[in-house]
Amino acid sequence: MVSPENEPAPLRRNRSFRILWTGQFAAQLGPGMGAVAYPVILLDLGGTPALTGSVTFLLGVAAVSARLPGGAAADRFDRRALMIAAQGTRALAMVVLCLGLLTGSPWLLWLVVIVALVDVVGHEAYRFAERAALPHIVRSTDLSAAVGRNEARNQIASLIGPVLGGWLMAVSRTLPFGAAALGHAFAAIGLLFVRERLQHPRTPAARGDGSRLRTWTEAFSWIWARPELRVLLLSCVAPNLVITGVVLTVVMVGAEAGVSTGQIGTVLGVASLGGIGGALGAAALLRRFSPRGLVLATLWWLPITVVATIPLVDHWAVVFPSRRPWRPHRCCPSSSAPTSS
Q: What confidence tens digit (pLDDT) does each residue in 265-308 have?
């Protein structure tokens, strides 16, 4: 935490917090745009729905795998350098993908997968470093408000990202990735103007002489020692898989229906209003109900809503009124795309 003599300004006048908030908001639009862009690009390249689903699952596994080591990295390395490296690497990866799309690289399918993996891992590395740095740039009394504003930022980005990505993609397949590159670069450059130290100086005692492997696996051991936390984490796996599957289904069904990516992005953006509603209503619900009751209610409610949508599968024209055969965009010619098995 910050010392009293170096206590920062109130949140409304906190320059460093505004820089971090704005930079991450610009970068956070990238994953939202990717929710539309990556599946559509894979379909453009001749990928099957099974391949697209497998790539999405791979990205989810990469995100989960990067989270626990991400906390250790935020403590072990310089957080400012880690965040700049994460955003800079993501920006560079997006630029490379744009060049691949423009030139029609024969390795474009693999390039899309690699860039998506870099994007996911970089996002997790930045996210944990930013959370750990937050107490060093805001007052302790403002920490809860700062966390709330960051959560609101994430929800707003999840609303705007798919809409923006869909409509940019309707103009050019490279535009969403170019916009994401600019957002990541903006976030990285902004960190150079944050004056505060983002972590306490590490003393020799804090560095310790313990095993480095133990440093990276400590989070796994901590979770394994708490049965209630293991159960909670496992209970979140299925809902996340279902939500990801629903989003992917909407994108692929819309693509096969031949509607514009702008319409698809708009549908996903409207759907994310539910997440914003949940975030806004969480505090009121927790005052009325226990956390255990809310988790159980959510786990029962999710399969009911998914089953209720099954009769609508054959009536997607309600959501996507324009139905025409899907054809690859000319920036991703099928003749140069590698075939998938």
A: 887 877 777 777 776 677 677 778 887 888 788 778 877 877 77
CATH number assigned to the domain comprising residue 217: 1.20.1250.20
Is 3 within a domain? Answer: no
Q: What is the pLDDT of residues 169-195, one digit of tens each?
A: 889 989 999 999 999 999 999 999 988
Query: In angstroms, rounded to a whole number, what is the distance separating the alpha carbons of residues 66 and 124?
Result: 6
In terms of residues, how long is the chain? Answer: 341
Does 51 fall in a domain?
yes
Residue 7 belongs to some domain of the structure: no
pLDDT digits 0-9 by tens, 20-41: 899 989 998 988 898 888 988 8
Contacts (Cβ under 8 Å, ≥6 apart) of 312: 318
Cα dihedral: 258, 259, 265, 266 (round 10) = -160
Structural domain count, the chain: 1
Residue 5 inside a domain? The answer is no
First to last CA, the chain: 53
Task: Report the pLDDT value the prediction gives residue 326, as an integer from 0 to 100.
Answer: 47
> Domain limits at 220?
14-202+212-336
